[in-house]
Amino acid sequence: MANLDFRFDDYTEKFSSKMLAELRSYALEHPFEGPVSIEIGANRGKFLTELAERHPEKTYLGIEIRRSFAGISHRRLKRHGCSNADCIHADANLAIPILFDDGQIDEFFLLYPDPWWKSRHHKRRIIQESFLDLMERKMPKGGKVWIRTDVGPLADEMRDTLILHDAFEPIDVSDYPQEPLPWTNREQHCFEAGIPAHLVYFERV
Ligand SMILES: C[S@@+](CC[C@H](N)C(=O)[O-])C[C@H]1O[C@@H](n2cnc3c(N)ncnc32)[C@H](O)[C@@H]1O
């Protein structure tokens, strides 16, 4: 079978320069002031919209790598009158360094991330040491990381990576049951299919 890795990387190079230009324009047009909660992989924006409606006093940004979903989320937020929230089309790895000052992200949601099952694709998983170094810089002490997934081995791997990092400590999940946060589309599906959720909740220390 053909090895598509090179072609994929070649494609991402071109894709990234366009995305970086879009991100720089967005940063100039929409500078964030004060703390921001971000959701990586907002998909169609169900979770983000419900949370932004509940907390009009807070600022939310969804980051979604698929352009069509980012557009759907953006329009959903506008339709619901959420002037405190937006969703952009970007790779979170590129967007976070450009859009935020150090210590500005006080909450970070990663809900039902893509598992990237094949080992040669593991590098595309969000929770990696280098990304946690970035989060350490961009989050204040006391900032929260809320991760949920239906993939047990992925939850274990993310938990292990976070535990090994000096800047993050686990939060006791019994203090944070599932109900207070809205459900994502994937979560709703899992609940209806009887698939359990794994909670990976950490605090920036
Ligand atoms: C499995 S879906 C889950 C979507 C939603 N959070 C839910 O629970 O229904 C994962 C989402 O993350 C997005 N995604 C994957 N990698 C990303 C990245 N590096 N930056 C931003 N979004 C990403 C995908 O396009 C997809 O919409």
TrEMBL record:
Its EC number is 2.1.1.33. GO terms for cellular component: tRNA methyltransferase complex. It is an enzyme of class 2 (transferase). It catalyses: guanosine(46) in tRNA + S-adenosyl-L-methionine = N(7)-methylguanosine(46) in tRNA + S-adenosyl-L-homocysteine. The keyword GTP-binding does not apply. Substrate binds at residues 118, 150. Pathway: tRNA modification; N(7)-methylguanine-tRNA biosynthesis. CDD domains: AdoMet_MTases (cd02440). S-adenosyl-L-methionine binds at residues 39, 64, 91, 114. Keywords: Methyltransferase, S-adenosyl-L-methionine, Transferase, tRNA processing. It comes from the Bacteria. It holds the Pfam family Methyltransf_4. SUPFAM superfamilies: S-adenosyl-L-methionine-dependent methyltransferases (SSF53335). GO terms for molecular function: tRNA (guanine(46)-N7)-methyltransferase activity. Catalyzes the formation of N(7)-methylguanine at position 46 (m7G46) in tRNA. Belongs to the class I-like SAM-binding methyltransferase superfamily. TrmB family. This is tRNA (guanine-N(7)-)-methyltransferase.
